[in-house]
């Protein structure tokens, strides 16, 4: 039986935001990237806006 694994691994992006403005900028970046790709794995530290993006 053929494997159903993707041919390429997901894109992993890390962001660290330690203040409210960084959380807003990070969330905007995440939203735009999520509009371009659906295989992004997000890692890092942020606030509620970034958490809402994934």
Keywords for this entry:
two-stranded parallel sheet; 2 helices; alpha+beta; 54 residues
Structural features, described:
- With 54 residues, the protein is an alpha+beta fold.
- It has 2 helices and 2 strands; from the N terminus they run E-H-E-H.
Brief summary of the model shown:
With 54 residues, the protein is of the alpha+beta class. The protein has two helices and two strands. A two-stranded parallel sheet has the order 1-2.
Beta-strand percentage range: 15-25%
Report the average pLDDT across residues: 91
- Taking pLDDT < 50 over at least 5 consecutive residues as the criterion, the unreliable ranges are none
Count of all domains: 1
Topology of this protein?
Blueprint: E1 11-16, H1 20-36, E2 40-45, H2 48-53
Parallel strand pairs: 1-2
């Amino acid at each position: 039986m053929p494997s159903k694994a993707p041919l390429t691994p997901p894109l992993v992006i890390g962001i660290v935001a330690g203040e409210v403005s960084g959380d807003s900028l990070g969330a905007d970046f995440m939203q735009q990237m999520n509009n371009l790709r659906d295989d992004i794995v997000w890692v890092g530290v942020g606030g509620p806006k970034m958490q809402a993006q994934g």
